[in-house]
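Supplementary Note 3. Input sequence used for the single-chain structure prediction.
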Amino acid sequence: MSDRFYGATTLLCATALLAVVLTGSAPQINEYGEEHAKVYEHEYDHELDKTYEYEHEKKHEFNYEFFAMDTVIMLTIYSNNKSEADMAAQAAESEFRRLNDLSDRFAGENLLEPGVSDVYRVNNAGGEWVKVSQDILEMVMLAIYYGEASGGAFDIGIGAVSDLWGFRTSPRIPVDEELEGTLALGSFRDIEIDEGQGRIRIGKGAIMDLGGVAKGYATESAAGILRGMGIEHGIINAGGNVYAIGAKPDGSPWKVGIRHPRDAQGVIAIVYVKDKAVVTSGDYEKYFEVDGQRYCHILDPKTGKPVVGAASATIIDDSAFRADILSTTVFVLGRVAGEEFLNAEDGSPEALFIDYGLNVSSTEGIADSVVIVQN
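The predicted structure, written as discrete structure tokens, is reproduced below.
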């Protein structure tokens, strides 16, 4: 049996989105590699289009990056004052780190003080009520809403099932009996919320995981902080979660490239956006292969098995928070059911779908804003 694993600590794991460089090939980020300090020797996540004349309206471009939420986060801020840009970037970084700590379900391994993580405390409370922050309360409430609305296609309560597959440790294929038994332990429906008291409790068998929620929430929150500090033009690039603040300083839209699912350094499509989030879920983020079969980390909550058939799903929306949830949801539902689901949503989120055959399709609302580069 031939096994290959991509994602947690070995080889390269490419991220979901790649902003386009029109003048050259765009490098990538080794999002889950061990040597984060040597990230520039591996892959970059995004590289912004730099054809803009930086002196336009006396706005200068300032770039920042840091590691949080298991990825390298890049900020591009346009300002006429470096100290103001530095302060804004520091505030955004602090927000990412704060929300990372609150939502880390592996805080026992990752944090010196695991109790800082609300998710860790909920999962280890033995079914008792746990007081949580307003941030976690909002994340869980919206996640449960979409769990119900999608018929269970999005489920933050099956962390135990994800653990069976060993994507963080030693990848393996669980037998059906294991999956059935673990699925029976709990789901998002076993998570209770007492909004008035600001507390959450979870059934003893379920494990809450906000991996498909927290980064989008943090991206949106950081964008709000930047706007509040006077930043009108910029990009937050959080490893698959991109948020375009306003337009480019000359008024033109940002160009965000969608990563080719089977070419780590390729772009399959370009989306033009202003004031939008562009969030992708893909089967190449974390996966392993056995005898030529790809097993990705995005599981179908109904079967407990990796989704098959979709290569990636991208959501373009006003909200990075919602887009993060929806990208996973429509990836699980598939193009037809996913598009029907989006059509029922308020605010008209749009989507770009790529299947195993590398066929690219989009919802009607963004057809004029997408350019197919290759397939």
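The chain is about 25% helix and 25% strand. The first helix runs from residue 82 to 103.
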